[in-house]
Design goal:
Length: about 525
RNA sequence: GCCCUCAUCGUCUAACGGUUAGGACAGUAGAUUCUCAUUCUAUAAAUCGGGGUUCGAUUCCCCGUGAGGGCACCA
């Protein structure tokens, strides 16, 4: 029996079954596809899994900020669509009129676009009109379709009205029992459990033993109903969603049966949990680092975020972690997705971001840096940076790019290039002044400065080294105190680069004014 | 309370039933460059517990325990 489409058996196969003996010849199949067929004893029918076109959907509801878990679910759907050459659908689940907002809707389009997840069907990214021939793609515009499908259930005797709402009717013997959780008596139905063949979890059985509401008394359909109707009418082949929906799936399967439709393939992906410092449970919108918007504002590189997200619950099968998106698409597959939940690790994400930052073309870094300063809350620093000559700004950024871990460090890291009003770190000052004879070093440096060649980093280095040799000291003896005087800190790019960009006059002025404070 | 899922270093994860249990992030200690960051080297760190099956179990089975999710006229 095919684990996916539940049809036929390998003995009757026409050569379209993925079974152990026939693997060697299947060069087209990925490693994880091969593996999934054997350890768990599952078999897949190629006709259903690979030969019909994959259609997957991401179906967010615009009731809150777009967060990391949603992005990962979207990503896995998108990756699977791109991996299989299938279709990625964006559907807006906006049936909860009280909590929907246009602002959140725009945020969904914006975030997906920023992350590079383009959709083949759904509303257009600008919110005007839509694409695809299975629309409308906003549930708020699909009322007629829901009415029509409700009628099918009514006609089949599988739905009934009670207390003004419409309920889905389960088949089987009925009995009453007391529900501890809800503290009331409920009517249950005796029936064989629902069997879910999940691509990631394997076979899951769950009893579905209570009628449930499909249309509220206000006339609006509920999630379970619209979700299933939409997936049927949009011809969705694979439902990739968070494991938190696994318990809902039995309801959905019963609805598919009620409509006389074979359910799609389910793949319930693990959840993203809070990092240990953040506490227990799944990542929530209130957790630090949970919102995609935050990374966008901090100018994280979307490709780094996507790469990091792809590694939460999935891996390439070897030791590689940083990979171009094309490689991830090539290697990604559903049976290779882990079953256990993953904790979010902002530090590792930061590391990934740095890796991408290091190899970012200077031109793009410059664009991002400019955008960053344009939206920087500190308008004084921003104005100073943005009003500097373009080539000077570019030179400063070139100095900073290989040294910072994320773009939002840029203001603090480069402030002294753009203004004389930079802060001086008191602790660093104390430390540096305590070592050797810094005042003497500064005096020597100032004396040597006018004769120094400022044309290149190498020339500057040579000048300072010559000075050091002359006094029987090391480069570091001048570097540390000069850096403190000129930048107010002990971290930053090479001192030679700082000297070269700032130029003789400003170096002299800063050394002078620093000397007056010690 | 009931139902479902999961379980390898602190974290993300590798390991046809046979490995000195590997890599990455974070940590620690060094090296290097003018600081910092990078880089390099070294180091510490894991198979939840108990039973089976097996010549042999991280891997298969059962029971505990722990973690997560669900149990709405929310999605």
């Amino acid at each position: 029996m095919c684990s996916v489409c539940s049809v036929g058996n390998p003995a009757e196969s026409q050569g379209f079954w993925l079974v152990e003996d026939s693997l060697t010849g299947c060069g087209e199949l990925t490693r994880s596809q091969l593996l999934c067929s054997t350890p768990s004893g599952r078999a897949f029918c190629l006709t259903s899994t690979f030969m019909s076109k994959v259609r997957v959907r991401f179906a967010p509801s615009p009731t809150g900020f777009f967060h990391i878990g949603s992005a990962r679910t979207a990503l896995f759907n998108w990756l699977y669509a791109r991996h299989t050459g299938g279709t990625f659908i964006l559907r807006i689940e906006d049936t909860d009129q009280a909590r929907n907002s246009e602002e959140f809707l725009r945020l969904i389009y914006n975030s997906l676009t920023w992350l590079g997840m383009d959709w083949d069907e759904g509303p257009n990214p600008d919110g005007v009109g839509e694409r695809g021939s299975f629309g409308p793609y906003r549930q708020s515009q699909r009322a007629d379709i829901y009415k029509q499908y409700l009628q099918k259930l009514l006609d089949a005797g599988r739905a009934y009205e009670k207390d003004g709402a419409i309920w889905f009717k389960l088949l089987g013997e009925r009995f009453k029992t007391y529900d501890e959780h809800r503290k009331k008596e409920v009517e249950k139905v005796k029936a064989a459990p629902v069997v879910i063949e999940d691509l990631i979890r394997g076979r899951v059985e769950r009893a579905e033993d209570e009628d449930f509401v499909i249309f509220r008394s206000d006339g609006n359909p509920v999630f379970h109903f619209v979700n299933v109707v939409d997936d049927i009418t949009m011809q969705v082949t694979h439902i990739i969603r968070g494991e938190d929906h696994l318990s809902n799936t039995s309801k959905h399967v019963r609805l598919y049966e009620g409509f006389g439709v074979t359910p799609p393939v389910f793949a319930h992906i693990p959840l993203i949990l809070k990092s240990p410092e953040m506490g227990q449970g799944k990542m929530s919108k209130r957790d630090k680092g949970a919102l995609i918007e935050e990374y966008q504002q901090r100018r994280f590189l979307p490709e780094a975020l996507v790469n990091y997200l792809s590694l939460l619950g999935w891996n390439a099968g070897d030791d590689r972690e940083k990979m171009p998106i094309a490689e991830i698409i090539k290697l990604f597959d559903l049976p290779g997705v882990n079953q256990s939940n993953a904790r979010f690790d902002g530090k590792k994400l930061g590391h990934m971001n740095m890796l991408y930052l290091l190899e970012l073309p200077a031109g793009r870094f410059l664009t991002l840096a400019r955008e960053y300063f344009e939206t920087l809350p500190d308008r004084v620093v921003a104005a100073a940076a943005l009003s500097s000559p373009a080539d000077y700004f570019a030179a400063v950024m070139a100095l900073a790019q290989p040294k910072i871990k994320s773009i939002d460090e840029l203001a603090a890291y480069t402030v002294y290039f753009f203004t004389d009003g930079f802060p001086c770190d008191a602790k660093v000052k104390e430390k540096v002044l305590a070592k050797g004879d810094p005042k003497a070093r500064l005096a020597e440096l100032m004396a040597a400065l006018p004769a120094m060649d400022f044309s290149s980093d190498a020339a500057i280095e040579e000048g300072i080294k010559a000075l050091a040799v002359k006094h029987g000291l090391g480069f570091g003896d001048y570097q540390a105190v000069a850096r403190l005087a000129v930048t107010g800190t002990n971290v930053g790019p090479s001192i030679t680069g700082i000297f070269r960009l700032l130029g003789l006059a400003r170096i002299q002025a800063r050394l002078q004014s620093f000397l007056s404070t010690v």
